[in-house]
Amino acid sequence: MNTLLNQSFSAATAGVSLLNDALRLQGIPAQAVAWTPPLGGKDLHDVMADSRRSAANELALAKMLSSGALLVDVKPASEALNLGRGEFLHAGPPIEWARASGPMRGALIAAMLFEKMAGSAHEAEQILEKNGVALEPCHHRGAVGPMAGVVTPSMWMFELLDPSTGNKSWCSLNEGLGKVLRYGAYSPEVIERLDWMRDVLGPLLQLGVRAREEHIDVRAIISQMIQMGDEGHNRNRAGTLMFLRDLLPFMIEGGSSTDVARAARFVGGNDHFFLNLVMPACKLQTRAAENIPGSSIVTVMARNGTDFGIQTSGTGDEWFIGPAQTPHGLYLGNYTAEDANPDIGDSAITETAGIGGFSMAAAPAIVRFIGGSVPDALATTRRMYEICEGENPTFGIPVLEFRGAPTGIDVTRVLRTGILPQINTGMAGKIAGTGQVGAGLVTPPMEAFTAAIAGLARRVI
């Protein structure tokens, strides 16, 4: 002890600054550590002490890693989801018209016009204000929808199958960027494009998919595109072109040359087209881990433009909700942060599965679209490993020596570290009818995770 006291030393302090200040006044080097007690209190303690949790989380991760995603069909939502007239699906947790954000309202207006349930935007609003349409989250039917995520009976859907579970998931076709329904636009050009997708694009995609002897392995394409500079949320360029490569010959063999040419131009010119296949593939991955008692792994993260909701493996289909946050990033044209709506869409299912914002290190070019720097992208991916149960070797990240993508968000790790999942996303204008105003980065509200830990604690045996 005497020898120790005779030597020079430095100290690390945590908590209030009193101790650090006192040491510095005595000339002793001291480093203050930014530390706060973990959130969750007794609920976190009870869940951490649950004897089932460790094995349950290992099982949830194993089920995620063994999942698959085959494109087995393309069909209208009326057939795929048994969606009837006057029934619309939407992104995020449940929401009603009175609380709906601008882009959600704009998308619902567009849906009314597209389905010819209203002759004008004003008439559509009147019907929606009177709850003349049944609204339900996409996730409640095993589907996912980007941005507003509005699905109507006449929209065509990709249908994906997980051979390991027999589960299926669905997503609508991607309209492109800018003024589109999913961003809340409802101008005539939006409806005309939707009409063409219903009458021409959907049937052509169905023809191509059904003509193939083997199903397109969407999960395999995701694995390849991660190694080609895509991250699966806001960059899907390589994935889109690989999908077109695999399907176009079969469309050519059975379709009108004029229609096929326009469809090829539309898909090939829309770098986000494959996102709507990535999303249901990710849904199948996280759905494989659902309903495991004691597991604190997140299976859903979704936003409706007003609320941000999560679900966990151990709590089934119960939603845990907090306020949606507004992304920060790059804006189109003269738009600014004042024009942006809070976070919206089911596309955070990509981050829930370990890609998107979690795998930005694989896509350094993404910073040109969402903001930040290449070192930021690398640091973000490394940080996400701290809140995940494990890694997915199928989605190897080249710049990290093909380390598997961080996978299996653990509610307890989020609360213990204070690190929130990183999501990269498009930004919709907060005024209905605007469309896209930019793209950026956002995190969920911590309130959703504190609510989830309380829900898990109630189920501790």
CATH topology of the largest domain: Enterococcus faecalis V583 fold
Query: Rough shape?
Result: globular
Could you name the CATH class of the largest domain? Alpha Beta
Largest sheet: 5 strands, mixed
**What structural category arises from helix and sheet content?**
alpha+beta
Oligomer: single chain
The DSSP helix count reads 17
Radius of gyration: 23 Å
**Residue-averaged pLDDT:** 94
- Tally of DSSP β-strands: 18
Number of domains: 3
Unreliable residue stretches: none
CATH superfamily of the largest domain: Enterococcus faecalis V583 domain
Distance between the termini: 48 Å
The order of strands across the largest sheet is 6-8-7-3-9
CATH architecture of the largest domain, please? Alpha-Beta Complex
Report on this model:
This protein is of the alpha+beta class. The protein has three domains: 32 residues, no CATH class; 195 residues, v583 domain like (v583 fold, Alpha-Beta Complex), CATH 3.90.1700.10; 211 residues, Enterococcus faecalis V583 fold (Alpha-Beta Complex), CATH 3.90.1710. Helix content is 38%, strand content 20%. It contains 17 helices and 18 strands. The longest helix has 24 residues. The chain is globular.
Q: How do you describe this structure in short?
A:
By secondary structure, the protein is of the alpha+beta class.
List keywords for this structure.
461 residues, alpha+beta, v583 fold, Enterococcus faecalis V583 fold, 3 domains, five-stranded mixed sheet, four-stranded antiparallel sheet, 17 helices, 18 strands, 38% helix
